[in-house]
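Quick start: what a row looks like.
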Amino acid sequence: MTIQLSRIDPEHNMRRFYRIRIQPGLFGDWSLIREWGRIGTSGQSKEDWFDTEAEAKDARFKLQMQKSRRGYD
């Protein structure tokens, strides 16, 4: 499941996106992949690895809450 967030503020010329998804690895581990940048660009990405799916989901939830507090919806 991919979570797609955006933050658009025309007054400040701000059009940003933030994507978060979880994927299983080959060896029973789980990756949390996040992508961010200006809407219309490929942006940047980062991948974090976790031992269990539950840990990855907890990290995804924390990121989603942080972004919500910063104005992403």
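That is the whole record. The chain has one domain: 2-69. The two ends are 16 Å apart (CA to CA).
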